[in-house]
Design goal:
Length: 175
């Protein structure tokens, strides 16, 4: 059994109707841009539109090819955690790295203790005990599914009724 010391999540990359999903995208807060592998480039049939000089963690200069594609946190893609980004491909790279560009765009941070990403759920999002969340669910149906867990949520608290739920309850402002 291999023990990983990185935070990894499943991410999907899209270009038109083509998609590529990886279960082991490394969350790298030190990377300014998301980096993909040649396998992603080939699967999506991406065309490079520019190059960039980058440095490796060992500060070795390298040439990276710049592409554009949709980057999506697979588990929450339908809830808006997907956006188009410039992504880099460094020849010979063996891992997909999710960089600070995606984290900043979606206001996500790394939860070291629970080994995953955390963020603020979009307006109308409600946690489900079966995993994930749903938007604009009728309160009666939510109570039926979640029982007391729905009433135990406090604004600003990180909700963990299920390992898949990693978001803070949205703040509601009453007028």
């Amino acid at each position: 059994m291999t023990i990983r010391h990185e935070i990894v999540e499943e991410f999907t990359f899209r270009n038109g109707t083509r998609s590529f999903t990886t279960a082991n995208a490394v969350i790298d807060t030190g990377a300014h841009h998301t980096c993909i592998t040649q396998a992603v480039v080939d699967a999506l049939e991406l065309d490079a539109y520019d190059t960039a000089d980058v440095s490796s963690p060992g500060h070795e200069p390298m040439l990276a090819f710049i592409y554009r594609c949709l980057v999506a946190w697979t588990m929450y893609e339908e809830q808006g955690f997907a956006s188009t980004h410039e992504v880099l491909c460094i020849p010979g790279a063996g891992e997909v790295l999710i960089g600070f560009d995606f984290l900043r765009a979606h206001e996500l941070s790394v939860d070291i203790q629970n080994q995953g990403l955390v963020g603020t759920a979009p307006d109308g999002a409600v946690p489900l005990t079966g995993g994930g969340y749903v938007l604009n669910m009728p309160r009666s149906y939510l109570l039926k599914l979640n029982g007391e867990r729905a009433n135990a949520a406090k604004p600003g608290a990180i909700l963990r009724p299920h390992p898949a739920w990693r978001f803070k309850l949205p703040v509601f402002i009453k007028k």
